[in-house]
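Our consortium's second objective concerns turning raw sequence data into structural hypotheses that experimental partners can test. To show how far this objective has progressed, the report includes one record in full. It was chosen at random from the queue rather than selected for favorable results. The single chain below, 176 residues long, was entered without modification.
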Amino acid sequence: MTVLALDIGPAEFAASRVGGGVGARDIKRIPIPANAVWDGCRDLLLDVAGDDEITAVGIACPGPIDKSAGLIAPAGIPQWHSGFDIVTAVRRLFPVAAVEVATDGLCVTLTERNLGGAHRSEAILAGAGILALLAAERVARNTPPGFGAEQVTGHFHGRAAYRPAGRPICGRHRPQ
């Protein structure tokens, strides 16, 4: 099972694999291209995926997001202001992958609730990773869509979670 997290930030894309032993050094970042935005994002995801089959992708975006249609329209990407169907585009890249998209704010909340604090950019990507793990688990359990990030229980049934900078984080032991 190979799971990816994607953060669509105001000035850059960041992507990483999700799992034990994955840390800040494993995050790949590119500035948002002036032209061919999806091509840059796609190439980043393919680079992070390597030759592995991807089973889930969690996407964090500043919004606005039309979750039912899979559309995003982040302010930092003028080409996507009228809406870009990120979910369909990612599913074309990784046909067997469960794909979930959420606001960066929700992703930060998922990180804080499940892993403790982290630097904001790492927290957003970690939250996207949690979102991807929830999507993968939903598929494995054959749980209907809509039951996911809203129903976080704080554990992932034995699956390793992304930990920023490769170190465990909890609410009482914040990184320095």
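The partners drew two points from this record. The helical segments are 37-49, 86-93, 104-115, 120-141. The mean pLDDT is 79. Both points have been shared with the crystallography group to help prioritize constructs.
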